[in-house]
Specification:
five-stranded parallel sheet, Response regulatory domain-containing protein, alpha/beta, Rossmann fold, 2 domains, 9 helices
């Protein structure tokens, strides 16, 4: 799958940001749709097939809370789990990103979005979709293996995003567990669990690049 035939829905209530993102993606070869609210996003998703969604988490009527973005993620998980969502975080970016991952986001980007980061994240999403489609082609031959592989693939993508976020916040805070817990909205024991889960230590910060390179 190339950018040329990929379709992306940009969901942001700020027309300036939405327009800039749409122009960037169109120049890269994407076919772009735009929506300014949860209802518009769901309406577009019901009428048009898209490969990925670039989703602002804070939208009216609660611009300072991630509720509207989480509602879109929940809808996608229920009706279109194959669509990959990249969330944009503004206020409280770490805790918002963690919530979004738990609700099925494929990746997260902090505002203001860097064009090269957005395109790289979309490239990873499309590679993941391509891999999933290849598995589906074998559906009639290895049904059980397919189900397991697709389940593992979803888990892997979520783990990659979770690892990336936790590792990033640990590095930003010099492994201050109390501060990491505050930023992510977790208890300290949850942070210790995640550190153990991913084997995160000070010298392991380069793991994020290796995990991010996996399909």
């Amino acid at each position: 799958m190339s950018f040329v035939n990929a379709k992306v829905l940009v969901v942001d209530d700020d027309p300036g940001i939405s327009g800039l993102l749409a122009m960037l993606l169109e120049n890269a070869g994407f076919e772009v749709y735009e929506a300014a609210s949860r209802s518009q996003a769901i309406e577009r998703l019901q009428s048009s097939k898209v490969d990925a969604v670039v989703l602002d988490m804070g939208m009216p009527p609660n611009e300072h809370l991630p509720d509207e973005g989480l509602a879109v993620l929940d809808w996608l998980a229920l009706y279109h789990p194959e669509v990959k969502t990249l969330v944009l975080t503004g206020q409280h970016p770490d805790s918002t990103a963690y919530l979004a991952i738990k609700h099925g986001a494929f990746d997260f980007l902090a505002k203001p979005v860097q064009p090269e980061q957005l395109l790289l994240s979309l490239k990873r999403a499309l590679m993941f979709i391509k891999h999933t489609q290849q598995l589906k082609e074998n559906e009639g031959i290895h049904r059980v293996s397919l189900d397991l592989s697709m389940s593992d693939g979803v888990k892997t993508a979520r783990n990659q995003a979770e690892f990336k976020l936790v590792n990033q916040v640990l590095m930003d805070t010099d492994f201050n567990v109390h501060e990491v817990a505050r930023r992510l909205g977790l208890k300290r024991e949850n942070v210790y669990y995640l550190m153990k889960k991913y084997g995160l230590e000070r010298q392991d910060s380069d793991k994020v690049s290796r995990l991010s390179d996996e399909p």
